[in-house]
Design a protein that fits this description.
Length: 163
């Protein structure tokens, strides 16, 4: 467990996270953030490349689990589309939601990774829970406040680039 704001690896898109990489890290459970990681804010659909990527991971034996701070219907909608369990109102950066996903899935922290787009919530929660952190670039900036928040994350967004 570490109070680090630095991700382990960085990707331009969640779809760049491959089964081969996860196998090399010893990861069997990939915990997914929702907003700006697998779907833009305010949408209730997943684009076909994300759906195909998720199916490919599942076919390769990687289990998926959604952990989101979102309080609305989006985590449940996306969990239904992907046919995976979910936790909403996770309270990230607290590691509580990530640890609950580990408990429910019966997975040790070192066998799990979290894919998310934010440093101050996703990365901190992953590092505090002791899981691998795979930072992805946000899908889309929808407002000025998000752009400002990402600007303040820039010093920490230097994780190992894996392209």
């Amino acid at each position: 467990m570490s109070f680090s704001l630095c991700p382990e690896r960085k990707f331009d898109s969640v779809t760049q996270i491959t089964p081969e990489l996860l196998r090399a890290l010893g990861v069997e459970l990939l915990i997914l953030d929702v907003d700006n990681t697998i779907a833009p804010y305010k949408t209730l659909t997943l684009e076909e490349p994300v759906l195909a990527w998720a199916r490919g991971l599942q076919e390769a034996g990687v289990r998926l689990f959604i952990v989101s701070n979102n309080k609305g219907e989006r985590p449940e909608v996306f969990a239904s589309l992907l046919r995976v369990p979910y936790i909403k109102r996770a309270g990230k950066p607290s590691p509580r939601g990530v640890r609950e996903a580990l408990r429910l899935s019966g997975t040790a922290p070192e066998r799990a990774a979290l894919a998310g787009d934010q440093i101050y919530t996703d990365t901190l929660a992953a590092n505090l829970a002791g899981v691998h952190m795979l930072l992805v670039e946000p899908i889309r900036f929808t407002n000025v406040l998000l752009a400002v928040r990402y600007f303040f994350e820039l010093p920490f967004r230097h994780g190992k680039r894996n392209l």
